[in-house]
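Protein modeling request. Please complete all fields; requests missing the sequence field cannot be processed.
Requester role: graduate student
Desired output: 3D structure, token encoding
Chains: 1
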Amino acid sequence: MTLENALTGVTDQVRDALPSELFAVLEADRRRAAGTKFAEVGAEIEDFELPGADGVPAKLGELVADGPAVLVFYRGQWCPYCNLTLRTYQRELLPELAKLGAALVAISPQRPDGALPDLAFPVLSDVGSTVARGLGLGYPVSDVVREAMVTLGTDLEQVNGTWELVHPAVVVVDRDRVIRFIDVHPDFATRTEPERILEAVRSL
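Delivered output (204 residues):
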């Protein structure tokens, strides 16, 4: 099963579980036009340091010291699409990246004081979406979506400290911190297939 098929299954489950009016709000939000210029291949990312979910900070320069890094920007642990994607990457991507000498890192705007994700690769907290906004990935949540999320029990003010989210994205960065691959998903119910990421890393 592809990641796309699995994510479609999540959408079906969400549709069945939510009141129709709330599902319609979220469905409209994920199908909106991004209207944002994202970072492009060839751009250099400034070195950054972010706290880890386990309390250990990490710098981009350290992550790419021995090879490229795959940076996975995701919305948060509360997002079922993100959880499925990260588990898929751990199962299908992490072992292959290790063979290629590449690091896998997940980054979200969540505060680092939440529950520790059950993942075998670093999970970093980009509080305030500083790094994400530098890549064009951060955006404010609309009032109607904010109301729907609060109704569903997700208060981003508590989780992130701000009502801002990030477009899910995969960014492959080489040892010089230059973007060699970037795939952004304004439709948060879609994500980058593992094989596409591996192809990008193998091409370096």
